[in-house]
Write a structure and sequence with these properties.
This protein is an all-alpha fold. Among the domains are: about 35 residues; about 210 residues. About 50% of the residues lie in helices and about 0% in strands. It has 16 helices and two strands. A two-stranded antiparallel sheet has the order 1-2. A hairpin with a 7-residue loop joins strand 1 and strand 2. The relative contact order is 0.11. About 15% of the residues have low confidence.
């Protein structure tokens, strides 16, 4: 019998072709779906239950999933989903009273999947009787679609059975992070990926490592990767080796994006020396926004929720204030901000964004009544500044 051997180079070529075809198929499916939704919007088609087909875009990675979980997002978060003890139901209360945060029934930017501005029990009561405000804004429809995905994450994937596919005792991701098993299909160990530090070509072109470095309770592009289980999350967060390796993975990707972790205790980040080159890559390869969304979700799940807000604040500053990353601005506002588990931090980030966003009439990421309050405060502060300046002016006789 004649045996045929395939060279490693040919194997790599086959893998790249397979990954390309998979991406192409996902792209075609996504845009066909969008076209169908847009046609449905034009003709006013309605889905079962009376919901208008508004052409909303699914979550950033939804077109790659076997199914989208949109049911029961408002249920109480499973404590096993976040060993850090932070969940949206237990977040710090906002300084404003519930009356101040009472979303009016006609608020044009009310989103049923975003409870950032409401107490959780109030939000659940409203969800039973209200849907997102009927709008014609494409920008707001995108936000509503993203908010559904991000709320599902913040609540610990309450309808997660479709993502399981394996027993809760499966520890594949933990074993990979402990260096006991390789990734698939690349067959590389955790330290092999960490050796890719500053290997920007590999980090950009290979699409099967990110699901192993930053595992979630939802599937992604790599069908060979495993989703996290509740039990696995708890064991992962108990392991010093696993969490230390996750920190190294985070530093690896920060460097790839031109960012440096300057405080491991607080998670504060800053531009790295090579930031211009890497920002150019981020602007031209916007699929990295999917990766960053995954990274933020993973940080919140596997013991680093305090790292979320500093990274999101960095991206808000670079997109809205310094305007260095215009191509990922909508991803920052739709996804990055709403990956932050702590509600008060999320509110502060949205206010920071609103202060720097122009034109403010196009800002859709919080209800109008909140924006109105912020605008009043801005006007009041400006008047106080002008009054102070006038009092400090010396007039010559």
């Amino acid at each position: 019998m004649v045996k045929f051997s395939v060279s490693p180079a040919l194997q790599r070529l086959c893998r790249k072709c397979r990954d390309f075809l998979r991406c192409l198929w996902g792209f075609i499916c996504r845009w066909c779906s969008r076209l169908t939704q847009c046609v449905g919007t034009a003709f006013g088609w309605r889905r079962a239950g009376g919901e208008t087909n508004d052409g909303a875009i699914r979550g950033e990675d939804d077109f790659l999933r076997p199914g989208a979980s949109g049911e029961n997002e408002g249920r109480e978060r499973d404590p096993a989903a976040d060993s850090s003890g932070i969940s949206e139901d237990d977040e710090s209360k906002d300084d404003l009273s519930d009356e101040d945060h009472d979303v009016g029934p006609l608020d044009e930017l009310y989103c049923e999947y975003d409870s950032t501005w409401e107490e959780e029990e109030v939000h659940e009561k409203r969800k039973k009787t209200r849907c997102s405000a009927p709008v014609t804004s494409y920008k707001f429809r995108r936000f509503v679609s993203a908010a559904k995905d991000m709320q599902n994450y913040r609540h610990g994937y309450p309808a997660n059975t479709q993502y399981a596919g394996h027993s809760d005792g499966d520890m594949t991701n933990l074993e990979f992070y402990l260096g006991r098993r390789p990734s698939l299909p690349d067959e590389m160990y955790i330290h092999d990926f960490h050796n890719w530090f500053e290997n920007y070509d590999a980090l950009e072109s290979v699409h099967t490592y990110i699901q192993w470095l930053f595992p979630l309770q939802e599937p992604g592009m790599n069908s060979s990767a495993r989703t996290l289980t509740k039990a696995e999350i708890q064991e992962f967060c108990k392991s010093n080796t696993a969490t230390a390796n996750l920190l190294e993975s985070y530093k690896l990707m920060l460097n790839f994006y031109g960012i440096r972790l300057c405080d491991e205790n607080t998670g504060e980040v800053e531009r790295a020396a090579h930031w211009k080159e890497r920002f150019d890559n981020l602007n031209s390869h916007t699929h990295n926004s999917l990766r960053i969304t995954r990274i933020l979700k993973c940080l919140g799940t596997l013991g680093y929720p305090h790292y979320q807000s500093p990274l999101v604040h960095f991206f808000l500053k670079e997109t809205l204030e310094n305007r260095n990353l215009p191509r990922i601005r909508d991803s920052v506002l739709n996804y990055f901000v709403f990956a932050v588990l702590d509600k008060k931090q999320r509110q502060s980030l949205i206010e920071f964004a609103f202060d720097r966003y122009e034109p403010k009439d196009d800002f859709v990421w919080c209800p109008k009544y909140i924006q109105t309050k912020w605008l009043r405060d801005l006007m009041s502060n400006r008047k106080q500044v002008h009054s102070t300046d006038d009092l400090g002016v010396d007039h010559d006789d």
